[in-house]
Amino acid sequence: MLTWLSRGSAPVMADEQEEALAQETDAGSKAFVAEPLLTVRNVERSFNAGSQKIRVLKGINLNLYPQQLVMLRGRSGSGKTTLMNLMGGLDTPTEGEIHFKGRPFHKWDDDKRTEVRRKDIGFIFQAYALLPLLSAYENVELSLRMANVPRTEWKSRVTSCLDLVGLSKRMHHRPFELSGGEQQRVAIAKAIAHRPSLLLADEPTAELDSQMAAQVMQVFKEIVVSENVTICMTTHDPTIMEVADHVYEMVDGVFVAK
Ligand SMILES: Nc1ncnc2c1ncn2[C@@H]1O[C@H](COP(=O)(O)OP(=O)(O)O)[C@@H](O)[C@H]1O
Ligand SMILES: [Mg+2]
């Protein structure tokens, strides 16, 4: 088990966590100190807008470890989505390095990153991203098809993922027959069905009332352990941060201490 994780206690800032990790390593307990799942090193991202260059990320450093629930917090426009896109291999940095399970995303072309993404990363967006004509069951099944999971495994995996998010009884409903919170839970089932190591969720609770948001966060807390997944999510909501193992606060393209 990862004893240095602070699940259940107050979120810690990056440097404190690094220090804790180093101490454990110094104490000779390397055997259970995990390698990071994802590392972001000195990452910058700029966009060209006409003749102007807009510097959006200005030197980001971050580590994600196995079975962590990590949050990025910051105002709209601070750069959270830009960073999530880089971590998920949807985009590449202008400067700096991103390694996912040791693979250099910053050097890899889109085809190679897409291959990793399909197999090992799941995405959840603010607006559920379910296909409206498919049932909950079919939506989840689709992600197994996309990841080339053998057909014989589909039924049990789809059923168990919908069970995990508490929607076994709604599996044949289409999105329009479900509440916002239920749709987002289907989206979670869909995003984890192919057993990714990393789940990236961009403002997954922004459209939900506080009770539904709490349900989604409960599911996140559970699957970090039961599905052995690391979750990195963005939020504006301070109450949600209480369940995080770790919170990064972004202001204008850099992380700041809270
Ligand atoms: N493709 C792009 N081209 C130009 N500017 C962009 C692009 N993507 C994001 N930006 C700019 O980067 C800034 C940060 O955006 P974003 O990462 O979406 O912030 P957040 O998710 O924190 O609201 C914004 O000012 C946005 O306009
Ligand atoms: Mg955003």
Give short descriptive properties of this protein:
alpha/beta; 6-stranded mixed beta sheet; 4-stranded antiparallel beta sheet; 258 residues; Rossmann fold; 7 helices; binds magnesium ion; binds adenosine-5'-diphosphate; disordered N terminus; single chain
Written account of the structure:
By secondary structure, this protein is of the alpha/beta class. It has one domain (3-256): Rossmann fold. The chain has seven helices and ten strands. A hairpin with a 2-residue loop joins strand 4 and strand 5. Helix 6 (180-192) packs parallel to helix 7 (210-226). The longest helix is centred in the last third of the chain and has 17 residues, at 210-226. The protein is globular.
Main-sheet strand order equals 6-7-8-3-9-10
Helix-strand makeup class: alpha/beta
- What is the CATH topology classification name? Rossmann fold
Average pLDDT level = 87
> So how many helices?
7
Rounded to an integer in angstroms, the radius of gyration calculated over CA atoms is 18 Å
Kindly summarize this structure in a few lines.
It is built from seven helices and ten strands. It has 258 residues and is an alpha/beta fold. The strands form two sheets. Strands 6-7-8-3-9-10 form a six-stranded mixed sheet, with helices on both faces. A four-stranded antiparallel sheet has the order 2-1-4-5, with helices on one face.
